[in-house]
Write a structure and sequence with these properties.
Helix content is 39%, strand content 19%. By secondary structure, it is an alpha/beta fold. It has a five-stranded parallel beta sheet with strand order 2-1-3-4-5, with helices on both faces. The structure holds 1,3,4-trihydroxy-5-OXO-cyclohexanecarboxylic acid. The site of 1,3,4-trihydroxy-5-OXO-cyclohexanecarboxylic acid (DQA) has 10 residues, from loops. Its EC number is 4.2.1.10.
Length: 144
């Protein structure tokens, strides 16, 4: 079973950017851990990051043809992007939303997510472990 793990803008700077909020792990570390877990769970993985909204939309469209699930950290697009919401609405598989930080204890503009309404589940504030929890849940639901 194929799972897309999609990451939005500025997450390429993970580990360097505001480490007091996002921690010291890099996105390469997250990808490595996700790949290790996916192997264990029998999932195939496409792992992507982009600072461009259209690229994330294109990957969601690509996932429509091939993937059973999308795990997405839309980063700042979470709070702004109707276009990503519309793309996710056109995807029939499982969707999980991940945020490294606890967006609910941060600025008010981070409290609303366009994506949460189409997600089967939302994880926020578990650091990069959130990605692994989402993958475990995907595997559990695909098995059941
Ligand atoms: C984030 C939270 C967003 O509000 C922020 O814009 C990000 C990262 C997180 O993972 O905690 O870039 O999605």
């Amino acid at each position: 079973r194929l799972v897309y793990v999609l990451n939005g803008p500025n997450l390429n700077l993970l580990g360097k950017r505001q480490p007091h909020i996002y921690g010291h792990e890099t996105l390469a570390d997250v990808e490595r851990d996700c790949r290790g877990l996916a192997d264990e769970l029998g999932l195939s993985l496409r792992f992507h990051q982009s600072n461009r909204e259209y690229e994330i939309i294109d990957w969601i469209h690509e996932a429509r043809e091939t993937a059973a699930a999308i795990v997405i950290n839309p980063a700042a697009f979470t709070h702004t992007s109707v276009a990503i919401l519309d793309a996710l609405n056109a995807f029939d598989g499982l969707i999980f939303e991940v945020h490294i930080s606890n967006v609910h204890r941060r600025e008010a503009f981070r409290h609303h997510s366009y994506v949460s309404g189409v997600a089967a589940g939302v994880i926020a504030g578990f650091g990069t472990l959130g990605y692994q929890l989402a993958l475990r849940r995907v595997a559990q639901l695909l098995e059941g």
